[in-house]
């Protein structure tokens, strides 16, 4: 106070500025050793790929095959570089890692309520290269580490090297990193070919990749793109006329998520990958570099058993389809072993292709090759004729249409944990997932839900109905008459018998008494929550498409005494040091139906296995445990289903072709009790033999049945598909001849081949006959009768 006034003010200011600066300097010196050194900058951090592991810790897949392709600065469009510098760091060439003017301005704006970032391109590169060392939390500690590292980077790299490193590491969602993969993902081009609008759009995403995502938020993306263009105008990179022209142009995105499958991938790991990428985007993790360990619910031994069952039974069923469709009489070989013996001497599906010319033409017209030919100016007749003579194209078409597919999934009803998941017979040939993507008609596998709704309404399992064709009036006044393959006896039958013997006549009457709203509600409560359920009478017979996962989930709810649990495929995620960063736990259960009614329904479904359409589980596979289930078959043998409940495990399979116009030919092998049942039975037999499933386990109130003699066929029960015949409506006429079919000027047969006017599709060269594979072991019993 003895000092003159001006000195007192000066000293006060010195203390106010000098003390904080001194403290900041001490803080920087403390943090300095905790930031990457120059040697580390040169080598960068050794990235560690995230991995997916089974419940026992066995590695299932990794993310080391990431979506990143490094390019040099010369391979990046100048528009991209200009847009980046103008928007993110226009003094980039002038500073040494920190733009002090921008940093101070961002502090002032932020204190005034307008939060702004002050990071330079170099600081952003520091975050991209060293997210763990610098930290993820938005605080002053992270910002100082970021600044220190930026200065070190500037001392180790040239400006061009910094730009190149930044543009190769910046994230752009969908597990894409770097400008090259971003260009391919969002615009189907390369980094070198990005135009000014595409460059501005990608630079605009850097402020918030989710918020300004041009795929999900196009309006925000356009607004942000125009901000980037205005920055380019502000800094002399665009004149006013060019800017006004560009900002009015629409957003043109050509989005294509890049392939990221590794050789170890399966449908299950692909499904988890997709989920994990979204989780990582939302939680600021890099699945390629952060070394996450994703703990899944998959039981590796059960997955192996499922893979073998799908391969063994899928191959056997493919052979049957090949032979039956190879000749006019359908083969009539009897057992699967007999078909295997014939397979080497026939041309698979030869009769199918020769007898279905109109359908073949429809197949061709639906291909991208045909559509491309039309777009290029060809007429339909010319395009069709040319493609029919393209042997490679025809070979691909035949292979795709006639490949039998199978989906399989198993889950623990007590926890909801997925234990096995097979989406197709070969993931690398067919990525379409028949567990969670394919929605198909479930046929009679839906019937237990109808009977469950009846039990919930107070009906007793022994409630009587007459086995007779009944007129059912739909909401639009249409009359429907459900029938059964075995005909109607006119006798009284109980609800229990109606389910055991899969009687459409009985199920339809139960549906009438219960009402569609109650059936749909129970279906939703049990687990069919994504697929649309049509409120029509035929819903009771399984005509409304659903996914296999939904159906197995519904059966799991029944097996769990009526308690629904959402399927769980990941339990937790840990970082590279073993710290749990996310825990998903067991889902809360919801009471979908009463425990007593679920026990009654399980008891009714035991009869399906003991004396109904699912007896193959006993006599083919010798499974004597307390199990229950249901088969399903849809119209024209299009879909075969079987789902089986064990107290500790529920598993289901679907069998069919991707195109539902291709079906199993015979009514015997087209039934779920003779195709999908083989997959589930094979799986359960192996799981029991390996001790993964307790054969002695019983449902509450149940008991283990008496042993049965394997391969002692008690006689098969036919199952009618789930379509209802409409009364008074004539069948659809056959399709009219097409003007561009074979008889109207199509090509002559190829050398050495026979002309087949009814087909319009030339035969392929026949390969050398392979040696006949041995008959599949689980299919020892031959069918008693072959039907077409």
Tell me what you see in this structure.
- The protein has 788 residues and is α+β, with helices and mostly antiparallel strands.
- 41% of the residues lie in helices and 10% in strands.
- It contains 28 helices and 21 strands.
- A hairpin with a 2-residue loop joins strand 19 and strand 20.
- Mean pLDDT is 83; it is low at 42-46 and 722-788.
- Pfam families: Transgly, Transpeptidase.
- Residues 57-232 form the Glycosyl transferase family domain.
- Pathway: Cell wall biogenesis; peptidoglycan biosynthesis.
Question: What order do the helices and strands come in, and which of them pair?
Answer:
Blueprint: H1 5-31, H2 38-43, E1 51-53, E2 59-62, E3 67-68, H3 78-88, H4 100-111, H5 121-129, H6 131-134, H7 140-156, H8 159-169, E4 176-177, H9 179-187, H10 196-205, H11 218-234, H12 240-247, H13 267-283, E5 293-296, H14 300-324, H15 336-343, H16 350-355, H17 357-365, H18 368-375, H19 380-388, H20 391-402, E6 404-411, E7 418-422, E8 439-440, H21 447-456, E9 464-466, E10 472-473, E11 479-481, E12 492-494, H22 495-500, H23 504-514, H24 516-526, E13 546-547, H25 548-559, E14 563-564, E15 570-574, E16 580-583, E17 590-591, H26 595-611, H27 616-619, E18 628-633, E19 639-646, E20 649-657, H28 676-689, E21 725-726
Parallel strand pairs: 1-5, 3-4
Antiparallel strand pairs: 1-2, 5-15, 6-7, 6-20, 8-13, 9-12, 10-11, 11-21, 14-17, 15-16, 18-19, 19-20
Helix pairs in contact: 3-10, 3-11, 5-7, 5-8, 10-11, 11-12, 14-15, 14-28, 18-19, 21-23, 21-24, 21-26
């Amino acid at each position: 106070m003895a000092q003159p006034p001006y000195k007192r003010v000066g000293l006060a200011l010195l203390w106010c500025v000098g003390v904080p600066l001194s403290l900041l300097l001490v803080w920087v010196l403390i943090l300095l050793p905790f930031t990457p050194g120059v040697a580390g900058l040169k080598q960068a951090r050794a990235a560690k790929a995230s991995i997916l592991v089974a419940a026992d810790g066995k590695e299932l897949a990794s993310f080391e095959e990431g979506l990143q392709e490094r390019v040099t600065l010369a391979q990046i469009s100048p528009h991209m570089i200009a847009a980046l510098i103008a928007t993110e760091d226009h003094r980039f060439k002038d500073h040494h890692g920190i733009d002090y003017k921008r940093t101070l301005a961002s502090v002032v704006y932020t204190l005034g309520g307008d939060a702004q970032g002050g990071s330079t391109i170099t600081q952003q590169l520091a975050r991209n290269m060293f997210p763990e060392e610098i930290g993820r939390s938005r605080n002053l500690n992270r910002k100082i580490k970021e600044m220190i590292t930026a200065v070190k980077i500037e001392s180790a790299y040239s400006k061009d090297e910094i730009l190149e490193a930044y543009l190769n590491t910046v994230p752009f969602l969908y597990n894409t990193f770097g400008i090259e993969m971003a260009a391919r993902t969002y615009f189907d081009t390369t980094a070198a070919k990005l135009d000014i609008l595409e460059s501005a759009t990608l630079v605009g995403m850097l402020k918030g990749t989710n918020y300004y995502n041009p795929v999900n938020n196009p309006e925000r993306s356009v607004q942000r793109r125009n901000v980037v263009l205005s920055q380019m105008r502000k800094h002399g990179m665009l004149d006013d006329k060019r800017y006004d022209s560009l900002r009015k142009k629409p957003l043109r995105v050509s989005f294509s998520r890049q392939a990221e499958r590794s050789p170890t991938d399966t449908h299950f790991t692909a499904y988890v990958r997709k989920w994990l990428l979204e989780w990582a985007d939302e939680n600021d993790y890099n699945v390629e570099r952060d070394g996450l360990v994703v703990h899944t619910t998959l039981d590796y031994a059960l997955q192996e058993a499922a893979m073998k069952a799908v391969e063994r039974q899928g191959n056997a069923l493919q052979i049957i389809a090949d032979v039956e469709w190879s000749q006019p009489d359908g083969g009539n070989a009897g057992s699967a072993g007999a078909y295997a013996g014939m397979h080497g001497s026939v041309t698979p599906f030869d009769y199918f292709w020769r007898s279905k010319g109109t359908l073949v033409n429809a197949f061709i017209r639906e291909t991208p090759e045909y559509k491309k030919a039309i777009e290029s100016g060809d007429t339909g007749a010319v395009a069709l004729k040319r493609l029919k003579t393209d042997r490679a194209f025809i070979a691909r078409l035949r292979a795709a249409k006639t490949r039998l597919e199978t989906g399989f999934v198993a889950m623990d009803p007590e926890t909801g944990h997925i234990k096995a998941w097979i989406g197709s017979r070969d993931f690398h040939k067919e990525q379409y997932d028949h567990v969670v993507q394919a929605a198909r008609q479930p046929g009679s596998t839906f019937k237990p839900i109808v009977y469950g709704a009846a039990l919930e309404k107070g009906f007793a399992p022994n409630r009587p109905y007459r086995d007779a064709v009944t007129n059912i009036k739909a909401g639009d006044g249409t009359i429907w008459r459900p029938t059964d393959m075995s005909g109607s006896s006119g006798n009284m039958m109980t609800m229990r018998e109606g389910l055991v013997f899969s009687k459409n006549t009985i199920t339809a009457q139960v549906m009438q008494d219960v009402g569609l709203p109650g059936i749909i509600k129970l279906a939703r409560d049990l687990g069919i929550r994504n697929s649309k359920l049509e409120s029509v009478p035929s819903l009771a017979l399984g005509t409304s498409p659903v996914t296999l996962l939904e159906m197995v989930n519904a059966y799991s709810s029944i097996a769990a005494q009526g308690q629904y649990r959402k399927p769980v495929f990941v339990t937790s995620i840990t970082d590279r040091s073993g710290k749990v960063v996310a825990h998903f736990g067991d889902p809360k259960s919801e009471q979908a139906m009463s425990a007593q009614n679920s026990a009654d329904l399980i008891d009714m479904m035991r009869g399906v296995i003991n004396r109904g359409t699912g007896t193959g589980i006993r006599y083919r596979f010798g499974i004597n445990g307390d199990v229950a289930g249901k088969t399903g078959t849809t119209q024209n043998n299009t879909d075969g289903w079987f789902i089986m409940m064990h107290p500790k495990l529920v598993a289901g399979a679907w069998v069919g072709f991707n195109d539902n116009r291709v079906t199993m030919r015979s009514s015997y092998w087209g039934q779920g009790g003779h195709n999908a049942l083989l997959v589930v039975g094979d799986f359960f037999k192996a799981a029991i033999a390996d001790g993964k499933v307790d054969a002695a386990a019983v449902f509450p109130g149940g008991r283990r049945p008496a042993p049965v003699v394997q391969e002692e066929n008690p006689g098969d029960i036919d199952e009618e598909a789930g379509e209802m015949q409409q009364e008074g409506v004539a069948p659809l006429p056959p399709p009219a001849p097409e003007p561009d079919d074979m008889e109207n000027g199509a090509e002559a047969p190829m050398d050495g081949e026979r002309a087949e006017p009814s087909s319009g599709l030339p035969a392929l060269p026949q390969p050398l006959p392979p040696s006949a594979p041995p008959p599949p072991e689980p299919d020892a019993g031959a069918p008693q009768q072959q039907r077409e």
